[in-house]
Amino acid sequence: MSNQWVYAFGAGRNEGGATMRNLLGGKGANLAEMASIGLPVPPGFTITTEVCTAFYDNGRKYPADLEAQVEAGLKHIEAAVGVKFGDNHHPLLVSVRSGARVSMPGMMDTVLNLGLNDSTVEGLAEASGDARFAWDSYRRFIQMYGSVVLGVDHHRFEEIIEGLKLDEGFTEDTQLTAQDWHRIVHGYKEMVAQETGKPFPQSPHEQLWGAIGAVFGSWMNPRANTYRRLNDIPANWGTAVNVQAMVFGNMGEDCATGVCFTRDPSTGEDIFYGEYLINAQGEDVVAGIRTPQPMAQLKAKPGEVSMEVAMPNAYAELVEVRAKLEKHYADMQDIEFTVQQNKLYMLQTRTGKRTAAASLKIAVDMAEEGLIDRTEAVRRVNPGALDQLLHPTLDPKAKRKLLSKGLPASPGAASGIVVFNADEAEARAAKGEAVILVRIETSPEDIHGMHAARGILTTRGGMTSHAAVVARGMGRPCVAGAGGVQVDYHAQALAAGGQIIRGGETITLDGATGEIFVGHVAMIEPQLSGDFSTLMGWADEVRRLKIRANAETPLDADTARRFGAEGIGLCRTEHMFFDPARIGAVRQMIMSETEGGRRDALSKLLPFQREDFAALFRIMAGLPVTIRLLDPPLHEFLPHKDEEMAEVAESLGADLATMQRRAAELAEANPMLGHRGCRLGITYPEIYAMQSRAIFEAAILVGEETGNPVVPEIMIPLVGIKRELDITRAQVIQVAEEVFAERGTRVEYLVGTMIELPRACLTADKIAGAADFFSFGTNDLTQTVFGLSRDDAGKFLPYYVEKDILPKDPFVSIDVEGVGALIAMAAEKGRSVKPGLKLGICGEHGGDPASIQFCETAGLDYVSCSPYRVPVARLAAAQAALNNVKST
Amino acid sequence: MSNQWVYAFGAGRNEGGATMRNLLGGKGANLAEMASIGLPVPPGFTITTEVCTAFYDNGRKYPADLEAQVEAGLKHIEAAVGVKFGDNHHPLLVSVRSGARVSMPGMMDTVLNLGLNDSTVEGLAEASGDARFAWDSYRRFIQMYGSVVLGVDHHRFEEIIEGLKLDEGFTEDTQLTAQDWHRIVHGYKEMVAQETGKPFPQSPHEQLWGAIGAVFGSWMNPRANTYRRLNDIPANWGTAVNVQAMVFGNMGEDCATGVCFTRDPSTGEDIFYGEYLINAQGEDVVAGIRTPQPMAQLKAKPGEVSMEVAMPNAYAELVEVRAKLEKHYADMQDIEFTVQQNKLYMLQTRTGKRTAAASLKIAVDMAEEGLIDRTEAVRRVNPGALDQLLHPTLDPKAKRKLLSKGLPASPGAASGIVVFNADEAEARAAKGEAVILVRIETSPEDIHGMHAARGILTTRGGMTSHAAVVARGMGRPCVAGAGGVQVDYHAQALAAGGQIIRGGETITLDGATGEIFVGHVAMIEPQLSGDFSTLMGWADEVRRLKIRANAETPLDADTARRFGAEGIGLCRTEHMFFDPARIGAVRQMIMSETEGGRRDALSKLLPFQREDFAALFRIMAGLPVTIRLLDPPLHEFLPHKDEEMAEVAESLGADLATMQRRAAELAEANPMLGHRGCRLGITYPEIYAMQSRAIFEAAILVGEETGNPVVPEIMIPLVGIKRELDITRAQVIQVAEEVFAERGTRVEYLVGTMIELPRACLTADKIAGAADFFSFGTNDLTQTVFGLSRDDAGKFLPYYVEKDILPKDPFVSIDVEGVGALIAMAAEKGRSVKPGLKLGICGEHGGDPASIQFCETAGLDYVSCSPYRVPVARLAAAQAALNNVKST
């Protein structure tokens, strides 16, 4: 069998193209593609990835017919350029570069100027008329080849240059003459012969095969192997080798080399963005010895010389290339070029990396320019990156002094004075001060302080700790689990790395990086430009999943609507219980030993809850509102300290001992798995009765106010057994009938359940019989499926993710294999008995793009997430819908 | 369509039989059966359960042809007895009794003497020659019919008798004459007419249809409905009605009535056991007005007259009947009979209820007598009841004073002095005192005290609290969660119901009932008779499941072998860490901040652990021993109180503050879902390394000692992700190779995993790739599937079981629908990739018969349970195997 192992490109003979990335690698495929659309690419050829595979399959031997094909490839180059490889007068020089499907660190990269030897260097001097250039090129070649192909330590080369400079009293390389470079070449060759035991190869063919062998050999070196293992890249993908005629940006003042983007990768602005250097080779642009100059004159600062001005012809040609590339690739490109004696050559093009803001602007601009269609624009923007556009961010130019680092728990940046408790945070915020609430960890009692604060810092807990979850929900920047920071409440101070910050001093948090800075750092306010809403509009046109928000305060509900939420998917009623005006009655209820006592206390809470719900119904104006009845165990509402306990006892007219006894009775070994959710509703039916009454009364009230009927969705938490839902549902229905009879009117309503326990998933066909909807509580489901407490996972989960035991934090992105399997099972079982059963999710995962993709595939009806994640979810849902259309 | 609605029995015309229980009810089917095997049954007929169903299906109307069939049935009785229903001279009297498939409280039971009226009563007087008997029978009839058929309050009847006795100055019914009864009948009739607005029915046919209607009507009364709902009895089963010729045990001194068992239901002894009364009707035997006499002379006490002596002919006949019945039914029977004028009549037979001891003896005896085969004997004994045979029990005759009651957490009875802490329990037990350890709840630190105590009492926690689980494992009687008892550690006293018991005073616990008694109560030691081991031997012949024990101490392992365990299924290595000689090193390990420090501390534990394992290997002598590596979170090993903490700090040379800080770092919100199991093994690999080394060194040691190779089974706990098992397995293998190299020898070993998380079940096909066996940890699996903490469930789980939200405590008996579904899934997935994968369970469920049935069906290889449950498990496994053979 005879295979094509070598694919030519350039000079009118393009055997490859962009679609052949697997065979030719990314670089080779794009070189052929550029050449095929008429761009000026120096001619060359690509040795395919299949050669690499064959090489390893056959005990590091090349296919028999490879040599002939490489020779033919060289002939193609020689014919195109008109000079010969190894010719002593007009030598052809080539570059040899690796190029796998994906860019991969650890592999051999590039050897330039290959083909030079003691004879051809003279020919190059002659042909170019520049002996210094020729000898410099030769020494560059020996240095590169010597280190990457022959394995000589690169310090050995530097020593020789430094030695000569010392001898001559030079400080800069530019001071070296042709003669000097000649001497250095001599030194290099002696040193290489000594190090390797063999003279430096003089045969250009031997050089070429040496470089090809080095590329293939580097595919299996330890660093490349490690990288592939970590990134799940199969070893049998192999790498390609690109051999290409050299062009020189360093042959004189009419030469240049540059690296640039077709648009501004930072802002997305439609302007040439990048740098070039006159009379330089590619490595000089990045080496930092000379200062690169801007491409476009518009971007030139005083004293800078843009390429637009310095090389107007080459620049004009490049502008055409840019248009051609963007049109052809329909995306912003990251390109490398060389100008040799005023002639432009393209050496590389690839899709350019960009910031979130640029990504958004480029996608919208390109759609409006007609380069891509709107669905493509929707696909182009990474939803996860949107988050950073919705919050203030630190000014990248601002000075800063790092104090410590924690987990990037909720994005955005905030500055404020350090305050150590929630009450003080609220009091100082009320006086107009910007505060940062600093706690070892937060609890539901701190909610009012978190609301009042500009940002939250905790020293314990993970990405899904109470602080992190609540902060994300509120859109407050949060750095959580900053283990390097010690908080001393007593001393009202925090310490990190030997530095102490006292209460009242200012710090700045960057919730996107987890960094904590001393003092104030300047910020940039978010620009929710027209592009943002344009793209959101396009996303909304293609998505199938509805997006709701998790919200319980009017502020959150407003934010959610502003960001485009289509309802509330989770209103956690317990958050409403911590308000100082209510917590007294809540505690009275908890302390009561009798149902009557509890009913008395609950009757005080009724008007508050009714107003809570009425406010939400008003804001959501007919959009669905799902209200979860009380979920957490009652002890969460009791104070933790003796002195607070005493205060509460006094206010309730109880003695401290009774209070402590009751608190001890309520204490639990594992509150997550304790007396909570519908278990409370079953053992204390009066609690759910009060909440149901508040919901129905509010629904009637707002319906009458607005003339727009409210259809509340009542959600029973933590159901694991169908009878639990039967019983609590019957309670809700009974209260509904009572209220309807009292008011002489009725409202429609739904009663559904959270599916958040494995048993609920396993018996979803039974539970569906009593449920109008399922809402997957993926936080608790993840906890129970993994047997993993969110509050405690911080001790080992980061290690698990770091060591790749888990690919991702399962509280951030749904564990498709485990948790996902149960959700899919529950969805299928539920709909097997109720085909139209409404399904949603309301865990933290509702705002995670990968999880949203899962929800789309599993056929859910909606996701519900923190208000600030709503735009992320809208875009992710659109992409998920597009992906699923594509895959079906 | 014409149906047979009525089935005759007796007098040679038996249309039914024992197999027709669904159609004829239990009573009717057995009457026909007895008659058909030639026993003297008064003739009668049964109206089928289908009539009941038709009655309700047709708006409470009888089938059209029923009346004719009932008339024919009456004719059959009349012909057999030779007297006529309603005949004024020789009237036929009948009884009317209900009889459903299963005996059911709440339904109408019996009307006797039906057919009497103002005329036939005279005929009865005449025919019997006993006017007092006739009028007494008539008044009994009016009273019974009046209350159960006509709904007259039974007090109204008693008032009339009491009034007359008052008038006459009588104290006993026996003082009343025929004349008196006549007057009472008159009073009854007047009262009934007044109450019901209608005269008492004089037509025997009207009486009969009234009684039939009352039986069918009572099938749907509220009490019967409730009972059916609670016991899952479908309403459409219906009840039958039995109409039968009356026979009279109260017609004179040659008459009698009796209720008896064919063997002693308390001991199982093969002797007639029961009571009879001369000249009495059935109700008199149970009413307690006269003292019933024993059946067999052997059972007669001084002053008693046995039936054997008083009525030798009837008794001899009854002995024949007994043999015939036992032979026919192949089981011990509970029978009712009447002797009328020296002639024996059988009125009922049914399978007799019996104690566990009797059940065992009867099953073995009957198998040895050839009445049943051995597998049937194995089926006959309730495995759950065996438990009570293995422990001392309270002498039922002993006097006792109840103090309070808790949950029957671990069977057996124990007396001892009250002690409130584990150390004191150990110290006093060492001095030979019998102690009862009383704690609010227990923790692993109390283990030595629990071991030293005769019994354990806790005031908190459920059937699966720490105290309950550990006590069952040790075979110590335990009363748990006695909420009515207040323990005051400070005052060293407990209080219940106003009574105070101080430390040092004696109490007695009955772990089988949960009762707590003041002082000492006499006990009976268990008799593990030959019958016990005979039955166990038969069980072992038929069972497929292997039975292992959960054991870690030599004592437990010895007990387990004595009870027939075939290996250790779960050795919880952490129990070995609490020993006073070791806990210091354990705490030193925990307090170390460095791996080196931990390794130092662990090296002190190594010799202890090695000897632990060696001891188990020696005792188990080649039987498999599964050792679970460290499972609980490290904070469980730290002391809870400041003073203890200070002690520990001193002994470790650390300061208290450091110790407290480390303890605070280790504290967890939900320890059940925390940093434990293989998560410890991964983050602190040196712990598992030490334990693995101890296992391999011990295995080599004991193998060399005994010449019998030891094949340890190493079990990794809490795996949820396959990589966790990959990593820990690799660690174990590495240590094995190190030890083998050091010792110059190798042992075979297995490395498997607990399957105790939903995620492990869902991904069992992946995990199986790295596991030599799976052992289902059903305790933790139940906790995570339900989201239910064992330690906290006591607050609502009892309520759930009481209210039938859950049929059983899922920690006692596997929740087949939820937990079982995951186990079945894991078994299937595991074996899909490894067909021979060894599967077992090692939770508390391993000793529960219903759970063992599930394990048999799911195809597991073994169950492992507390040593004291091993016999229960052996028997249950045998029954499960028999059931599965039957059902396939």
UniProtKB/TrEMBL annotation, chains A, B:
EC number of the protein: 2.7.9.1
Domain Pyruvate phosphate dikinase AMP/ATP-binding: 65-297, 316-369
Cofactors: Mg(2+)
Active site per UniProt: 466, 842
GO molecular function: ATP binding; kinase activity; metal ion binding; pyruvate, phosphate dikinase activity
Catalytic activity: pyruvate + phosphate + ATP = phosphoenolpyruvate + AMP + diphosphate + H(+)
Signal sequence coordinates: none
Positions of Mg(2+) binding: 756, 780
Stretches assigned to the PEP-utilising enzyme mobile domain: 433-514
Annotated keywords: ATP-binding, Kinase, Magnesium, Metal-binding, Nucleotide-binding, Pyruvate, Transferase
Annotated residues for binding of substrate: 572, 628, 756, 777-780
Coiled coil: none
Gene3D superfamilies: 1.20.80.30, ATP-grasp fold, A domain, ATP-grasp fold, B domain, Phosphoenolpyruvate-binding domains, Phosphohistidine domain, Pyruvate Phosphate Dikinase, domain 2
Keyword Transferase: yes
Domain PEP-utilising enzyme C-terminal: 529-880
Top EC class, one word: transferase
Annotated function: Catalyzes the reversible phosphorylation of pyruvate and phosphate.
Record-stated family: Belongs to the PEP-utilizing enzyme family.
NCBIfam families with a match to the protein in the record: PRK05878.1 (NF004531), pyru_phos_dikin (TIGR01828)
Protein's name in the database: Pyruvate, phosphate dikinase
